[in-house]
Design a protein that fits this description.
The complex is a heterodimer of chains A (about 350) and B (about 250).
Chain A lengths: L1 H9 L1 H39 L3 E5 L11 E2 L10 E13 L4 E9 L11 E2 L7 E5 L1 H4 L7 E4 L5 E8 L3 E2 L2 E7 H9 L12 E2 L1 E5 L10 E5 H6 L4 H33 L1 H9 L4 H32 L11 H28 L2 H6 L1
Parallel strand pairs in A: 4-10, 6-8
Antiparallel strand pairs in A: 1-12, 1-13, 2-11, 3-4, 3-7, 3-12, 5-8, 6-10, 7-8, 9-10
Helix pairs in contact in A: 1-8, 2-6, 2-8, 2-9, 6-9, 8-9
Chain B lengths: L3 E12 L6 E12 L3 E5 L6 H8 L7 E6 L2 E2 L5 H11 E4 L11 H11 L6 H10 L15 H14 L4 E5 L7 H17 L3 E5 L11 E6 L2 E7 L16 H4 L3
Parallel strand pairs in B: 3-8, 3-9, 6-7, 7-8
Antiparallel strand pairs in B: 1-2, 1-4, 4-5, 9-10
Helix pairs in contact in B: 3-5, 5-6
Classes of the chains: A alpha+beta (about 350), B alpha/beta (about 250).
């Protein structure tokens, strides 16, 4: 650490450049992780909010919610601490001033997936809905009457709830019975208790050993991964982050290697004087660690600072736990990059340095 | 009985093989005692540096034995030879062997980091004062003149109390006055610290400071002159005396 820190102090500009590169890479990694987290949230918020263990879909649906269709009475065959039926439609909602794509959830208000209302009141009367509060930013408010694409029914917003987006669309929650009328029109009046068409049964607790005929049980994560585009999007961003780790290691390796090559004579003389390769190698590793930690910390502060000024339309959500992990990985790969220099130092022949 | 710090016994060094074989060092036997200063002169390519680097354990001979402070280093691996160098050998090189980003005092602190048994703070201060560099302790090598850098290099090589000092053209980059001054300091230090010293040099004027002069010709080492060194610096060298002497023991 003695050599490492003194060299940094004496060559501030040179090491500031390396730190700046690490800072920019970490900024990009943190920002991409925030973007990945935010985009994931767009898809999965409403599902995470259920805090469910498993979801039952029809076997023939191939794990697609929209393709799964069953009657609500199937829920009676499912064993679990808590069960809830879910019907879903994708629509365009229009309050006369703004239009927005929405996911309309038909649920039973006494079941566990009923959301907590953060503003206004829960739906009670016919065709009332509780909406995702993201719709507030799009120009929707409590009391708005919504006309829907593909149906003549009108819905009224009675309240808002937070963290309620599904497959990148804000969710509207409404009573399952009313939902049937939106979906099937007057034909819904013919449906008896338990005959409502639903897309899934959401379960919390229970062993999940009993799976009714024609149904398939999947866990929440699998359900989310099968949302259209979700896995592709997540993998793309994750791959970009992983590539940045590799790039980071390569950049640090190249920088430090160039610096080490410039100091081969000095290291050689030091080795000739009996200073061990281990001491010199440890010095380079300590130096890299110091630079990486400083770069990553500045990158972190810069990312969080930038996040304060981003418009809401940019789906960035900072997961500080994940950022800490990515930061640690960046420091680790930087140290890994320094191993090239360590190897160079180990291979330095003091005799050549003396002769030179 | 004379204690020889450095013993080379029938040492040879050959590079290449077959038609490209070059014998850089022919069978050489050399002993350097404590407090003895010898000079090796000779033209470029004669094998002087090869001898010096073998003596310092920087390379191994093709044949023969090398002992430093009684320890046979010929068959040691680089790591063990590195330890021997750290404990027993001080190098003074033609080019400055200073770390560019450390101040003069930090150059010595670095040695404290890697080795125990260096000079005490008082001894260090005395050494720096004697070498006339006590005012330079906060300066970096880049701020020093060539002569000052070599004096710092001497201080650095002596700081770890070596029993063997190896100097490769230590005055090559200095003007005559500075060269004599540095050589005088080196001689004083070697004598007072009781270190066996080998100086490889082109400058025959500097041989006035040494006890023996060897000439290297085509890899063959010949004793050219044996005498009591004529020129001894008259500066105070109390700091270099063994501790027991200073305490009147």
């Amino acid at each position: 650490m003695f050599l490492a820190w003194r060299e940094i102090k004496q060559n501030k500009l040179r090491f500031a450049l390396i730190t700046a590169v690490l800072m920019l890479v970490s900024f990009l990694v943190f920002f991409l992780s925030g973007l990945a987290s935010g985009l994931a949230g767009l898809n999965r918020e409403a599902v995470d909010k259920w805090d469910a263990d498993s979801i039952y879909l029809t076997e023939e649906s191939d794990k697609s919610l929209i393709q799964s269709m069953m009657t609500a009475e199937k829920a009676d065959e499912v064993k679990g601490d808590k069960t809830a039926v879910l019907a879903e439609l994708n629509l365009i909602a229009d309050n006369g001033e703004a239009k927005n794509g929405v996911a309309l959830f038909g649920i039973r208000p006494d079941e566990f997936i009923m959301p907590k209302v953060t503003e206004g009141k829960p739906f009670q009367d016919e065709f009332e809905v509780v909406a995702s509060d993201y719709l507030k930013d799009e120009g929707f408010s409590v009391g708005d009457e919504l006309s829907l694409s593909s149906t003549d029914e009108k819905l009224t917003i009675t309240g808002f709830t937070d963290s309620a987006r599904f497959n990148a669309a804000p969710v509207l929650y409404m009573d399952l019975g009313d939902f049937q009328k939106v979906r099937f029109g007057p034909a819904a009046d013919q449906m008896g208790e338990g005959e409502e068409a639903v897309n899934a049964i959401v379960v919390k607790g229970g062993s999940g050993e009993t799976v009714p005929d024609e149904l398939e049980r999947i866990d929440s994560e699998t359900f989310i991964e099968n949302l259209p585009g979700y896995t592709e999007q997540s993998l793309t961003l994750t791959l970009m982050i992983y590539f940045l780790f590799v790039i980071s290691a390569a950049v640090v390796a190249i920088f430090l290697y160039v610096l080490t090559v410039q100091k081969i004579g000095m290291f050689g003389v030091m080795k000739a004087q009996g200073i061990s390769s281990g001491y010199l190698a440890w010095s380079v590793i300590a130096q890299t660690f110091i630079l990486a930690v400083i770069g990553v910390l500045i990158g972190f502060v810069l990312t969080v600072g930038t996040g304060q000024f981003l418009p809401n339309a940019v789906p960035v959500t900072f997961d500080y736990g994940m950022m800490a992990i990515y930061g640690a990985v960046l420091v680790a790969v930087a140290v890994l990059g320094a191993l090239v220099s360590v190897w160079t130092i180990v291979k330095i022949d003091p005799l050549e340095a003396i002769s030179g | 009985m004379t204690e020889h710090v450095l013993q080379l016994n029938e040492v040879t060094k050959t590079f290449g093989s077959g038609r490209t074989e070059v014998q850089a060092l022919k069978e050489t036997t050399l002993e350097v005692a404590r407090g003895e200063v010898i000079a090796i002169i000779g033209p470029s390519g004669s094998g002087k540096s090869t001898l010096l680097t073998i003596a310092g354990g920087l390379q191994t001979p093709t044949a023969g034995d090398v002992r430093i402070a009684g320890e046979r280093i010929t068959d040691l691996n680089e790591k063990k030879r590195s330890r021997v160098r750290l404990e027993h050998v001080g190098f003074i090189l033609q080019a400055s062997n200073l770390v560019p980003f450390l101040t003069v005092s930090e150059q010595l602190r670095l040695l404290d980091k890697v080795k125990k048994g260096n000079m005490s703070p008082d001894e260090r201060d005395g050494l720096l004062e004697e070498l006339g560099i006590e005012e330079l302790v906060k300066k970096y090598p880049g701020d020093l003149s060539g002569g000052e850098r070599q004096r710092v290099a001497i201080a650095k090589s002596l700081y770890s109390n070596p029993s063997l000092l190896l100097a490769d053209e230590p005055t090559a980059s200095l003007d005559s006055d500075r060269a004599f001054e540095v050589m005088g300091l080196l001689k004083s230090a070697a004598v007072k610290k009781d270190a066996a010293t080998i100086v490889v040099t082109h400058d025959t004027r500097l041989t006035d400071y040494v006890d023996k002069v060897y000439k290297m010709v085509d890899g063959e080492l010949r004793l050219q002159e044996k005498r009591k060194a004529e020129r001894l610096p008259d500066e105070r060298t109390d700091f270099l005396e063994p501790e027991g002497d200073r305490n009147g023991v």
